[in-house]
């Protein structure tokens, strides 16, 4: 079965968000939504998220799920805004518990933040099936980029988060806390490359190498044949060596400080202080230390 898939590209963060609908029942899921955020002013906006709202309403879609492939480090989640506007349950892989415990320490969060997953409506297990009208969403644990990374298989389409990018862009970094390049290799080879070759593959990010137009869809066969980092003729040792060397040269993502502390809260902003203002915490000399 083939779901209806509509992609929305958020150019400031290079992020693809998807609305995935069962064509028979019009029940839908939203995957990896973005909350607009200006780091210089500290202002949030719902411009990108409201495009999703308008799309779903214009097509009379019933949003059943708002799904996160992991706690992103490059954009803030708009999950709570979408839930307030469209309904649905916010869900993420159960590996978020490790991520929450790690970043509670990093950000020095106090009693107001419980690292127990309670901020989400559901924590998802590997192999779990979620109803989507007459279709199902199969949860595939694909850790490596982060320990909580999952992919979502819906009919002939798989949404792979930050495991692989488009074939000309390669693979995701593995140097965040909980990341593991060997684990990423095995997640891709044993889980994603084991899917039928014709399976449609939808990536979470595209940084448009060479200035080409943004792209979001490929296939398992195309990834296995031509991914510049991880394809059928690349063994685990070579991949780990490449990924380790490459990660050591990468800058810290621009929005890692605000995004992770919002995303481990399922898209809830931090609670307001006594003055009614919400504040983000900036840990000094933690991210981007010399290795």
Question: Spans of 5+ residues with little confidence (pLDDT < 50)?
Answer: none
CATH architecture grouping? 4-Layer Sandwich
Helix content: 10-25%
Main sheet overview = 6 strands, mixed
Order of helices and strands: EEEEEHEEHEHEEEEEHEEHHH
Strand order of the largest sheet: 1-2-3-6-8-9
CA distance, first residue to last residue: 47 Å
Total number of helices = 7
- Helix/strand/pairing class, anyone? alpha/beta
Describe this structure in words.
There is one protein chain. The protein has 291 residues and is of the alpha/beta class. The chain has one domain: Ribonuclease Z/Hydroxyacylglutathione hydrolase-like (Metallo-beta-lactamase, Chain A, 4-Layer Sandwich), CATH 3.60.15. It has helices at residues 47-58, 79-86, 96-107, 181-192, 220-226, 236-247, 256-263; strands at residues 4-10, 15-21, 27-31, 34-38, 43-45, 62-67, 76-77, 89-93, 122-124, 129-132, 135-141, 150-154, 157-159, 200-202, 217-219. It has a 6-stranded mixed beta sheet, with helices on one face. The chain has a 6-stranded mixed beta sheet with strand order 10-11-12-13-14-15. A hairpin with a 4-residue loop joins strand 1 (4-10) and strand 2. Helix 1 runs parallel beside helix 2 (79-86) and helix 4 crosses helix 6. The longest helix is centred in the first third of the chain and has 12 residues, at 47-58. The chain is globular. The N and C termini lie far apart (47 Å).
């Amino acid at each position: 079965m083939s779901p209806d898939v509509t992609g929305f590209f958020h150019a400031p963060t290079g992020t693809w968000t998807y609305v995935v609908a069962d064509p028979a029942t019009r029940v839908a899921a939203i995957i990896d939504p973005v909350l607009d955020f200006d780091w210089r002013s500290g202002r949030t906006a719902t411009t990108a998220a409201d495009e999703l709202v308008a799309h779903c309403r214009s097509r009379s879609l019933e949003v059943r799920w708002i799904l996160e492939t992991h706690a992103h480090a490059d954009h803030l989640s708009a999950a709570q805004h979408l839930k307030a506007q469209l309904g649905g349950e916010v869900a993420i892989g159960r590996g978020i518990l490790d991520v929450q415990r790690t970043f509670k320490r990093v950000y020095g969060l106090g009693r107001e933040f419980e690292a127990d997953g309670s901020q989400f409506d559901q924590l998802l297990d590997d192999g779990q099936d979620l109803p989507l009208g007459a279709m199902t969403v199969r949860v595939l644990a694909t850790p490596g980029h982060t320990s909580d990374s999952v992919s979502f298989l819906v009919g002939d389409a798989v949404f792979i988060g930050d495991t692989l990018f488009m074939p000309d862009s390669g693979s995701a970094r593995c140097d965040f806390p909980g990341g593991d390049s060997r684990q990423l290799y095995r997640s891709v080879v044993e889980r994603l490359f084991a899917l039928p070759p014709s399976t449609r593959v939808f990536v979470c990010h595209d940084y448009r190498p060479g200035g080409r137009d943004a792209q979001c869809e490929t296939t398992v066969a195309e990834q296995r044949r031509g991914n510049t980092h991880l394809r059928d003729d690349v063994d685990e040792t070579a991949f780990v060596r490449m990924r380790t060397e490459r990660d050591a040269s990468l800058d810290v993502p621009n929005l890692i400080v605000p995004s992770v502390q919002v995303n481990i809260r399922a898209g809830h902003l931090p609670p307001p202080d006594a003055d009614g203002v919400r504040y983000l915490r900036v840990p000094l000399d933690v991210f981007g230390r010399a290795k």
